[in-house]
């Protein structure tokens, strides 16, 4: 039976794909059969034949070295770099939650650990027409614990605490935090880590410096995040 973990960013473009790739690399390096999954991916390019290429999935596969085929990684891929709900409205093929669950279940049958990356932040709308699906609905449907990924720089206290409080109020389990783009010499960023831990009660599990190719977290701590 596989175990899973859902990666939630405090906002867009804070490096959750980068951190997810390092998480998968750490699992693979420890000998685990690790897989990646993302319900919806927007802002993707096309190949010479006009096929959409899931950019986040390709990057994660490259950096982590996992053997999982890209076709298994994301059921909904959009070209426009918009929120998935808007990209789907423009391009068609709106998200169906039962499809996401079925595809996730298929991946879970073949791998020991499945890391699921969210789109945008916790309030990202994945569908908003006759049906309304937010990122939190996917977390509940897959029944996974969560890990917060945040930028270590200025403004992170507000975004981390608001995200954590929203998720805890809605009974979405959060295991801890990883900070990206961390500069150890920065007094500001060191204080951000302390303040985020104090205000949320969540542990900082790792910090990722610019250019890091490995994640500074021991195997036992990492695997215990997955349920």
Overview of the molecule:
- The protein has a single domain (3-224), classed as P-loop containing nucleotide triphosphate hydrolases (Rossmann fold, 3-Layer(aba) Sandwich).
- Helix content is 38%, strand content 19%.
- It is built from 8 helices and 10 strands.
- It has helices spanning 16-29, 55-64, 84-91, 97-108, 135-142, 156-169, 187-200, 219-224, and strands spanning 3-9, 34-37, 40-41, 76-77, 113-117, 125-128, 132-134, 146-151, 174-180, 204-207.
- The longest helix has 14 residues, at 16-29.
Biggest beta sheet attributes: 6 strands, parallel
CATH superfamily: P-loop containing nucleotide triphosphate hydrolases
Which structural class matches the secondary elements? alpha/beta
Q: Number of helical runs?
A: 8
CATH architecture: 3-Layer(aba) Sandwich
- Measured by DSSP, the beta-strand proportion falls in 15-25%
What would you call the shape?
globular
Task: Please trace the helix and strand order, writing H or E for each element.
Answer: EHEEHEHHEEEHEHEHEH
> How many beta-strand runs?
10
Strand order of the largest sheet: 2-5-1-8-9-10
User: Can you give the helix content as a percent range?
Assistant: 25-40%
Q: CATH topology, what is it called?
A: Rossmann fold
Regions with pLDDT < 50 over 5+ consecutive residues?
A: none
Beginning-to-end CA distance, first to last residue: 10 Å
Average pLDDT taken over every residue: 96
Rg over alpha carbons: 17 Å
| Overall domain count | 1
Text of the CATH class: Alpha Beta
């Amino acid at each position: 039976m596989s175990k899973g973990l859902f990666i939630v960013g405090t906002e867009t473009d804070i490096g959750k794909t980068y951190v997810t790739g390092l998480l998968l690399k750490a699992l693979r390096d420890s000998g685990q059969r690790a897989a990646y999954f993302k319900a919806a991916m927007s802002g993707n390019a096309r190949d010479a034949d006009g096929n959409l290429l899931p950019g986040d999935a390709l990057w994660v596969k490259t950096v982590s070295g996992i053997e999982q085929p890209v076709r298994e990684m994301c059921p909904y891929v959009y070209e426009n770099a918009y929120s998935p709900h808007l990209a789907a409205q423009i391009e068609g093929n709106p998200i169906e939650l039962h499809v996401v669950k079925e595809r996730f279940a298929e991946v879970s049958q073949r791998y020991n650990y499945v890391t699921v990356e969210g789109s945008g932040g916790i309030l990202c709308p994945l569908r908003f027409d006759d049906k309304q699906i937010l990122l939190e609905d996917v977390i509940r449907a897959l029944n996974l614990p969560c890990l917060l990924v945040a930028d270590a720089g200025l403004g992170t206290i507000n975004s981390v605490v608001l995200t954590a409080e929203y998720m805890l109020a809605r009974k979405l389990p959060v295991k801890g935090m990883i900070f990206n783009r961390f500069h150890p010499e920065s007094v500001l960023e060191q204080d951000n880590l302390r303040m985020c831990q104090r205000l949320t009660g969540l542990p900082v599990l790792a910090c990722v410096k610019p250019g890091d190719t490995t994640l500074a977290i021991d195997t036992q701590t990492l695997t215990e995040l997955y349920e």
